[in-house]
Design goal:
Elements: H1 3-9, E1 12-18, H2 25-34, H3 44-49, H4 56-66, H5 73-89, E2 92-99, H6 101-105, H7 111-129, E3 132-140, H8 145-155, E4 164-168, H9 180-188, E5 192-197, H10 203-211, E6 217-220, H11 228-237, E7 241-243, H12 245-250, H13 262-267, E8 272-274, H14 279-282, H15 286-297, H16 301-313, H17 319-325
Bound molecules: hypoxanthine (HPA) and zinc ion.
Cofactor: Zn(2+)
Domain Adenosine deaminase: 11-326
GO molecular function: adenine deaminase activity; zinc ion binding
Amino acid sequence: ITPSEFIKGLPKAELHLHIEGTLEPELLFELAERNKIQLKYESVEALKEVYNFSNLQEFLDLYYEGANVLLTEADFYDLTWAYLLKCKEQHVDHTEIFFDPQTHTDRGVLFATVINGINRALQDGQEQLGISYRLIMCFLRHLSEASAFESLKEALDYKDLISGIGLDSSEKGNPPAKFERVFAQARAEGFDLVAHAGEEGPAAYVSDALNLLQVKRVDHGIASINDPALVAELAKTKVPLTVCPLSNLALKAVDRLEDHPLKKLMDQGVLVTINSDDPAYFGGYMNENYQASAEALGLNNMELCQLARNSFEASWLPEEEKSKHI
Ligand code: HPA
Ligand code: ZN
């Protein structure tokens, strides 16, 4: 059995996935045509050529531009369904996906359009493909606190569909402290909390996400490696990190995958998971992330199993459901 067959055979949970980041160039063109939107790019190939980033912001600029083709409930349904078919193919049995409502409501697309399209696909995925899910709404951290409060208010009408609240977009210059009050309100409303921290930003942003925002999981968190006391705390508290190796490579958070801190964190007892982040932009879904990490860091099958087990352990499935997968 080859490493790729082994990885494919592992039941996995994905915990760090932006649904807007699963928009493949082919579907982007199809939706542009369907919605009569003129694109700057002549072809799928021409678009793929610009998917070459030197940092997070360069990626985000294209990611938000790409999202402009998403207008109708059917668009959000088709986007989500295409991702779920990929999950089925890759033995991803459970997925906890992010969506960014502000990217759409700021363009005049209704919150209801976005969430109903995504949710309908997730329900169909559960029924037809057997994939369980959670939905996490993210605030865009480059926007204001007031805008985040507005999104939170809209989310209250859909509390039964939304499990958690997260924080994404441009990290540098937008520290966790900016969202301390809106996260406190989200917590009071009963949402589970996560935040991107320590992707491009410093280890201190990870500590702030833990202490100020009181997140129960940290997205990326790789800068933690620079603070031994923080690594020890993560290992002790078992607050999971949702690591995205191919994303970190594509956005130059690491120069080479061989330099990625994933294994060092794991060896120091941190509950690390592997995830794909924005697979349409970074060159791989879950299995490609597992495979590239295994090759670059020399992970053996026991360690790959541990990572897959971690993914269910770190998920928000009820305990009795977790043990069925692990
Ligand atoms: N980081 C921050 N914001 C994002 C990302 C990411 O990796 N992907 C989509 N939005
Ligand atoms: Zn992310």
